[in-house]
Amino acid sequence: MSETTPIITEIKLEPTLSKGELVPDQWWAPPEPKRVSLLRRRWLFIVTVCVPVAIASIYLGLIASDQFISEARFIVRTSARSDVGNLASLMQGQKLSRATDETYAVSEYLTSRDALRSLAQNHHLRDILSRPQADIINRFPNFYSRDTEEELYRHFEHFLSVHIESESGISTLRVRAFSPSDARDLAAALLQDGEGLVNRLNARAYDDALRYSNQLVEEQKAKVVDVENRLTKFRNEQKIIDPNKESAAALDSVGKMMSEVMELEAAVNQQMTMAANSPTIAPMLEKIRSYRDEITKQRAQIAGDDASMAGKLSAYDSLILDRELAARGLEAAIVHLTGAREDAERQQLYLQTIVEPNLADQSLFPRRGLTILFVLGISLCIYWIAKAFIGSVMEHQA
Q1: Does residue 305 belong to any structural domain of this protein?
Q2: d(CA 351, CA 202)
Q3: Which of 18, 126, 133, 303 could covalently link to 310 via disulfide, CB atoms 3.0 to 4.6 Å apart?
Q4: What is the Cα–Cα distance from 285 to 266, expressed in whole angstroms?
Q5: How far is the CA of 177 from the CAs of 12, 118, 186, 224, 271, in angstroms?
Q6: What is the mean pLDDT of residues 1-26?
Q7: Nearest Cα to 285, choosing from 302, 300, 267?
């Protein structure tokens, strides 16, 4: 009997692995499907909410520089002079009232490029906006803007505001800067420039008033001179100084001669009654006839044709009327000029500062917490809108 050698087969048993457990040698294996699915579901929230809020928090918490506000309040007033009369004006004095148009003009000027140019040239605005403590976004120039006047104007618009209360007419000026002293200096400089604008408006108005008054006086003087020249020419041509006086003298002479004629006629009638053949009657009749001839002649000179005194009186009275009107016009122009000079010496527009620019002891901008909440709210709105849109697209494709 042959001897049989047993065959022993070595069997290696692999260890049993639970579901989801990786072999130690399989280090390259992908992550669990459940974890990948979770990240995929949350990517929209991370992109639209987490990332913006994180960026805003980092910028506002670590980068954004403090900004201080200096506030000032002012009003533009005008002095109104009463026209009741000189005595009443002196007793009543001047009244100060709101200058509505000028208030809006000053407000527009403070936010204009002219005011910005004045700040840049006289008050170092560029240096103030580029302080070392300014952050990379709020400083000027920054990484996304050029160093030009237009960019400077657009940048400074965010640091300046002017508000006018319609009821009281009080204007509120607010200026922001990276230090309290810079904000106060800029606000004071703007108030000074606004007062300079009001002074220029005063000067322009009263320069125009003086120029107009002087021109009016010269025009009235020319009218008076013209009338006097025409009156002199009329007197030289007519050989008459005053037709009115000469007419009055002629009428007085005619009246006296008429009285003489009446007396002579009465004497002649009496003489003829008493002695019809008296030799004194003929001389008396001759005297009456000569008186009547003279009366007829004087009447012809007073009234009749164009060469008579009446025709000359019409032209003379017209010249006298023109002279009186020209004299009154000159007098009114001189009064107007005097008033314009008085007004020029007395300022009519005032920029009155009610509240001086303050020196802030606490920064009010940026409002970090409120801004982060605002970014969070906007991000959540964008997230829900994007989520609804994507869901609608997926349902449509399905």
Answers
A1: no
A2: 11
A3: 303
A4: 11
A5: 80, 17, 8, 64, 122
A6: 46
A7: 267
Structure tokens at 103: 């208030």
- 274 within domain boundaries: no
Range of the domain at 127: 63-214+347-397
**Among the listed ranges 35-44, 77-86, 264-273, which one has the minimum average pLDDT value?**
77-86
Q: What is the C-alpha end-to-end distance of the chain, expressed in Å?
A: 78
Strand-pairing partners, residue 173, are 72, 162
CA geometry: angle 128, 146, 154, nearest 5 deg: 65
pLDDT value of position 392: 84
Where is pLDDT greater, at 23 or 61? Answer: 61
Q: Point out which residues pair with 351 in neighbouring strands.
A: 76
* Tally of domains within the chain: 1
Which residue type sits at 219?
A: E
Instruction: Report if residue 276 sits inside a domain.
Output: no
CA distances from 349 to 89, 195, 299 (A): 19, 10, 67
Mean pLDDT across 56-72: 91
- Banded pLDDT at 305 (limits 50, 70, 90): low
Grouping H, G, I as helix, E, B as strand and the rest as coil, residue 357 is coil
Question: Considering the entire predicted model, what is its pTM?
Answer: 0.60
Question: d(Cα 317, Cα 323) in Å, to the nearest integer?
Answer: 10
Please classify residue 143 by burial: count the beta carbons closer than 10 Å to its beta carbon, then call 0-12 exposed, 13-18 middle and 19+ buried.
Answer: exposed
Rounded-to-integer distance, Cα 142 and Cα 67, Å: 17
Does residue 248 have a pLDDT over 80? no
